[in-house]
Structure formats: C-alpha cells, structure tokens
Specification:
Structural class of chain B: mainly alpha
Radius of gyration of chain A: 12 Å
CATH topology of chain A: Non-ribosomal Peptide Synthetase Peptidyl Carrier Protein, Chain A
Order of helices and strands of chain A: HHHHH
CATH class of chain A: Mainly Alpha
Largest sheet of chain B: 2 strands, antiparallel
Oligomer: heterodimer
Shape of chain B: globular
Number of helices of chain A: 5
Structural class of chain A: mainly alpha
Number of strands of chain B: 4
CATH superfamily of chain A: ACP-like
Radius of gyration of chain B: 21 Å
Strand content of chain A: under 5%
Shape of chain A: globular
Largest interface: A-B, 27 and 32 residues
Order of helices and strands of chain B: EHHEHHHEHHHHHHHEH
Helix content of chain B: 55-70%
Number of helices of chain B: 13
Distance between the termini of chain B: 53 Å
CATH architecture of chain A: Orthogonal Bundle
Largest sheet of chain A: none
Strand content of chain B: under 5%
Number of strands of chain A: 0
C-alpha cells in the first residue's frame, strides 16, 4: 500500500476478503461480528491472517484473528501496531 | 461496490486460492497429525498380532473389535458422510451429537475438516483440485498404482489443505457441531480408552485391558480407515459404472459389505443428495438401513432419495453413454 496503513484500510480489505471467500455481499459483512459466526474456524482464521500478512508485507502472529475475534478488533490492533513501528 | 460479492481477483488473490489454504506452518502441523493417524493404527495392528502369540485373542477382544467397527463406521458413513457432508437427512441434536462422536472415534480427522475435504472432492472429482484422485499420477511410471496409493493414503501427506471456511461454513456456524469438532482429540482418546476399560473390566486383568486397547482400539481403527479409504482409491478405479458421471466413481458389491454401503460409489456420485446409496434391491447398504431405522424411530426425517424415474433417466444403456430404456438392468 502506498500510504500509511490505517484501521479503515485493513477493515475494508478484510470485509472484501470475507465477501469474496464466503460469497456474500460486502454490505452484509458485519465488522463487529466474531469470525466464527461467519463460518471461519481456527484454521481458516490462521489462513486469513497469512493472506493479510502477505498483503501488508509484514509478519503477523498466526493466531491474531483468534485473539482479536472481529474485523474491527483486528483492524484497530494492527493499525496501532503499524503506526507505532512507522513514525 | 458494497452491495456486491467481491471477486478474489479484486483482492489480488487467485480464485483457486480459496479452495485450498496456502500456509506452510499450518500444513506442516496437519501433515504430522496425518502421518501419526496413518502409522499408529498400523503399528498397533502389528503389536496385536505379536501379542496374540503370547496371549490368545479372546471373545471379548473380537466382540470389542466388531462392536466398535460397526459403531464407528456408522459414525463415518451415516454421520460424517451422509448427514454432515451431504445433508441427506435431518436428525435430532442428540443423534447428530452421537454420530459426530462415533465418527470422530474413527480418527479420520476433525468433523469439519473431513466434511470440507469431502465436499471439495465432489466439486472437483478427478480434476486438479480434487484432494484425492487416483488419476493424479497418470503419465508417470507405474502411474496407475502410484495413483492408487495417492488416492488411498498418500493424499493426506501431499495434497494442499482444504479451506474449511469455503466448504463447511454452515457447520462452523452451528455451535453444537463446531464444539463436537473441536473436541476431536477427546473422542479419539475415548475410542481407545473405552475398549481398554471394557476389556480390562470383563477379564479383570491388565492383559485384557491391553488386548482391548489393541483389538477394539487400534486394529479396529486400522480396519475402518482402510475400508473407508477405498472410497477414494478402489472405488474410483475398479467396478461397474451404471451411471454416467463426470468422474471415475464405480460400484463394488464386495466393498459395500465392510464399508456399510460406501461401495456403491457410482450411485453416490450420480445422486450425492441421496441418503440411500443402494438403488437396487440386491445392493446391500447397511448405512442406509441404519438411516431407515432412525427414521422409523422418529429420530431422523426428511430422508432424501431420488425417484425411480430420476434413477432410470440417468442410467446408461449397456456399453454406451446413452440413457437406457426404463427397466433395463445394469
């Protein structure tokens, strides 16, 4: 990404990702809903985290989306972490 | 567009990518478990025969082997396969839970992963993304036999992981089933501890407990594994094909006996929504009989099966790909 990554960027990317993976309209992706309620188990959450890491070009803990259980929680946590790293 | 489904390409992701998971560490862990699942029951079976030289195999051992063979095979074919993967009938939560536990005791992987991989097999049968096709090694020396081995056990060590969210999100969203699937290790342990405890109690000896563990636990697991895995290997290579399907699935009378009806594999690929794999009176399908019994007891309902007309219209005329006249036999 060509600018500092914000929570909004990450939230949009994850919403698009779930829309595409689960074949549901993007407007039906509730970013405050736990991943397991979308139908992601721990293996699928780890796989999604791997894809996000690739997209952002950073290393992420594989269990990130298991500890932070919603799109909102993951986006806020990650954006804070990335802002701290890149001043 | 917020109102539309996003395509993987828009995210810079290959569409096939969502079918399988590209995650090396996760894949490595899974393959280690798969190897243990294949090898441990085999070693247990060798140990059972070695022990038999010192301690005669008793009626308790054989009884435990037979009882758990049938129960866990019902868990796989009726539970994992016909109910959870293909939703061929509805059932009370208590029966669903029992089938989930019995199927897990067969040690063929987490329920949700098993279902996801099986649905992927039907969607891509004999094509690139099929997790276990015997055609995978075609064109290599001994390709037919290497393909057999791949479709039987090798695929668990070589195929890419199935994306559970893509194929089984309905089950992951079901709290009862998600919980049953998470507790997989507990059910596998139960499948070993139960015959050990019963064998020990009935013979009042530690030798009986060990023998129960081996015959009711590991030998039984070994036999159920390989009888069920013939669905991927033998049943996609050898047998009769009364129905034209887009894969190599075939019917085997002999296999259908020990795997409780799974041997009617061409029937199954032609009518995957059918709870009964038997489409002729002489096609023995004990899994289908079990579903009939559950239905009679009122524990299962909405049991799906194709109409006789639907079956006849799909049936090939002998030696051709064309539909036969109604009433023609295969």
């Amino acid at each position: 990404m060509d600018h500092a990554v914000t929570a909004v960027d990450i939230r949009q990317w994850l919403a698009a990702y779930l829309s595409s993976l689960l074949e549901i309209p993007e407007c039906d992706v509730d970013t405050s809903m736990p991943f397991e309620q979308f139908g992601l188990d721990s293996a699928a959450a780890v796989a999604m985290t791997g894809d996000l890491a690739k997209r952002l070009g950073v290393e992420l803990d594989p269990d990130l989306a298991i500890r932070h259980r919603t799109i909102d929680a993951v986006s806020v946590h990650l954006a804070e972490r990335m802002r701290d790293r890149v001043p | 567009m917020p109102g539309t489904v996003r395509l993987p390409g828009e995210l810079g992701i290959d569409a096939a990518r969502f079918v399988v998971v590209e995650n090396a560490p996760l894949q490595a862990v899974q393959r280690r478990y798969a190897l243990a699942t294949i090898v441990i029951p085999f070693l247990g079976t060798l140990a059972a025969f070695a022990l038999a030289a010192y301690r005669p195999v008793g009626a308790v051992d054989l009884g435990l082997l037979a009882a758990l063979y049938v129960l866990t095979s019902v868990g796989i074919t009726v539970g994992f396969h016909r109910h959870f993967a293909h939703r061929t009938f509805q059932a009370w939560p208590a029966l669903r839970a029992a089938l989930a536990i019995l199927g897990s005791m067969a040690a063929q992987g987490h329920l949700i992963y098993w279902v996801a991989t099986h649905r992927r097999h039907h969607q891509f049968a004999e094509r690139e993304l099929d997790p276990h096709s015997p055609t995978r090694r075609e064109g290599t020396p001994l390709g037919r036999w290497r393909g057999f081995w791949h479709a039987h056990v090798g695929w668990m060590l070589h195929s890419r992981m199935t994306n559970t969210a893509k194929f089984a999100s309905d089950l992951i969203r079901d709290p009862l089933i998600a919980r049953m699937s998470e507790l997989y290790a507990v059910w596998v342990f139960l499948g070993l501890a139960l015959p050990a405890a019963v064998g020990g109690a009935l013979t009042a000896s530690w030798g009986g407990a060990l023998s129960g563990l081996l015959w009711g636990g590991l030998v039984r697991m070994f036999l159920v594994h390989h009888m069920m895995w013939t669905s991927g290997s033998t049943a996609h290579m050898f047998g009769t094909r009364p129905f034209a399907t887009e894969d190599d699935s075939a019917n085997n009378f002999i296999l259908a006996l020990p795997n409780l009806g799974e041997g009617w594999h061409n029937n199954h690929h032609a009518f995957p929504y059918s709870a009964r794999f038997s489409l002729r009176w002489w096609q023995i399908d004990m899994g289908g009989w079990a579903i009939g019994a559950f239905e009679t007891l009122g524990w299962a309902w909405d049991v799906r099966a194709p109409s006789p007309e639907a079956v006849e219209s799909r049936r090939k005329a002998a030696g051709t790909g064309a539909p036969a006249a109604p009433g023609a036999d295969s």
